[in-house]
Amino acid sequence: MNADPAELQKFSDLAHRWWDPESEFRPLHEINPLRLDWIDSIAALKGKRVLDVGCGGGILAEGMAERGANVTGIDLGEKALSVARLHLHESGLNVDYQHISAEAMAQAHAGEFDVVTCLEMLEHVPDPASIVAACARMVKPGGHVFFSTINRNAKAYLMAVVGAEYLLKLLPRGTHDYAKFLKPSELSRMCRDNRLAVSRLRGLTYNPLTRIYALGSDTDVNYLVHATREI
Fold first, then answer.
1. Which of 43, 145, 165, 204 satisfies CB 3.0 to 4.6 Å to 222 for a cystine?
2. Where on this chain does S-adenosyl-L-methionine bind (predicted)?
3. Is the pLDDT reported for residue 208 higher than 90?
4. Annotated binding site for S-adenosyl-L-methionine, which residues?
5. Can you give the pLDDT at residue 174?
């Protein structure tokens, strides 16, 4: 199974705090409107069949469901999925949450989804290329795939690890392993190897003075990729 038990345990221990906007998951709550608007502006989510890979507690999955998408969320963290299912009682939304790996899902549901999202996950798995391949298999020809992860360079280490985890304390210490970060060129190659044509690359930046996140051209640290499946 393409998962690190230590990573699963890390998020399992925090699962009960997933929907607390002042918790360790505060950054996810704050960036969700930005990434959701960006995805919707490209893929027009309403009425689309969408798969969220590595959905965790369901912050993005619920956002896409609220936009009118038919959403399935998959994750290997059972506690996170329990929290996600429980939150549906509060939100009144409909999301199909499943405890299954991306690779197993791809074997059972190849070419079934209009949109596949995989955000903030690739830097937490042993074999990100396998996840990219699975996402490519699950999207329909001409469909949309979205990834987000962290660049690998000195600035990314200083900002995403030293800054975010130790100085600003936006994230718990040990959240990220620098060795697992991916350069945009590496992720783009993985996409090309799986017949995904990369069409958009956007950076996600954080201003510690204003405490505001923004999407732009700076991909030095956090970045998002949009690709389409070749027909």
1. 204
2. 35, 54, 75, 119
3. no
4. 35, 54, 75, 119
5. 82
